[in-house]
């Protein structure tokens, strides 16, 4: 996945001002930068939730700049949000069931003319949902209302839902936000497991210790522009990056 020269203004304010970068296939890539650098806006543009004013987005060889979110999802691009967006009025299990893609049961024609196919697909999705919940430590709470989960469990649910959609490219907006250190490690392990299965992960992340530990590649955004890209260890030696962002808090959490 890559983007070239993205621009996006809100009124007179330039939220994104020429962002250009590539996310290496099969990598875990971090998108970092100070508050207001344009990270979430870039993720919105990459996922198709927001149109850029100018610039382009590609997945592999395909220009997806004008494709809506669901078409990008068909190409395997799935995202999560800075604030978890579970369906509070559904159970944990139901949340996973509705997150599965291309369900035949959604088509009336299939329900009437291919009932056995629909039933077998439902069985397959149910089994997969159970497996994903077990993997993410949520199986025990599968019948709870999603709204009743703890903040950390909601984060895990959000990622589980994304996994149900079988992503090839997963965009995570601050997956560790508001999460305790034990869970941060667990979520980090899940992300590395996803990479092992070939998923490309791009995550907005403020916690540089996490970035250093699990990300192969880092993109630094400042004032809507790509300031630098590389490994975290290289960026620590980049004076421009240090001045703009890392400052005196190289080992700590940069927060709002
Ligand atoms: N819908 C919007 N309407 C107006 N201004 C917006 C909108 N979305 C973002 N902005 C502005 O665009 C700039 C970039 O915001 P964005 O949320 O993309 O930054 P960010 O790097 O994700 O910040 P943070 O780290 O605080 O989440 C900010 O100045 C923000 O106030």
TrEMBL record:
A Pfam cross-reference name: ABC_tran
Keywords: ATP-binding, Nucleotide-binding, Transport
Domain called ABC transporter: residue spans: 1-248
PROSITE patterns documented for this protein: ABC_TRANSPORTER_1, ABC_TRANSPORTER_2
UniProt-recorded Gene Ontology molecular function terms: ATP binding; ATP hydrolysis activity
Keyword Transport: yes
GO cellular component: plasma membrane
Keyword NADP among UniProt keywords: no
Protein name: ABC transporter ATP-binding protein
Native source species: Leifsonia tongyongensis
Lineage, opening ranks: Bacteria, Bacillati, Actinomycetota, Actinomycetes, Micrococcales
């Amino acid at each position: 996945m890559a983007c070239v020269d993205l621009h996006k203004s809100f009124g007179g304010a330039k939220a994104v001002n020429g962002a250009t970068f590539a996310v290496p296939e099969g990598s875990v890539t971090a998108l970092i930068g100070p508050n207001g650098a344009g990270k979430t806006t870039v993720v919105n543009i990459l996922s198709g939730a927001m149109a850029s004013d100018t610039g382009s987005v590609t997945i592999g060889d395909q220009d997806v700049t004008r494709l809506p979110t669901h078409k990008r999802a068909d190409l395997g691009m799935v995202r999560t949000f800075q604030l978890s967006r579970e369906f509070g009025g559904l159970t944990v299990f139901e949340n996973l069931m509705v997150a599965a893609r291309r369900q035949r049961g959604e088509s009336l024609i299939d329900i009437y003319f291919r009932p056995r196919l629909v039933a077998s697909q439902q069985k397959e999705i149910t089994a997969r949902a159970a497996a994903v919940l077990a993997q993410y430590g949520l199986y025990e709470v599968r019948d709870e209302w999603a709204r009743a989960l703890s903040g950390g469990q909601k984060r895990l649910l959000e990622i589980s839902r994304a996994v149900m959609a079988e992503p090839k490219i997963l965009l995570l907006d601050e997956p560790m936000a508001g999460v305790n250190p034990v869970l941060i490690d667990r979520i980090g392990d899940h992300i590395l497991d996803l990479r092992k299965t070939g998923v490309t992960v791009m995550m907005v992340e403020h916690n540089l210790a996490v970035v250093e530990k699990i990300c192969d590649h880092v993109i630094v955004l400042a004032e809507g522009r790509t300031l630098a890209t590389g490994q975290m260890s290289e960026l620590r030696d980049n004076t421009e990056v240090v001045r703009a962002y890392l400052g005196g808090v190289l080992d700590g959490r940069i927060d709002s």
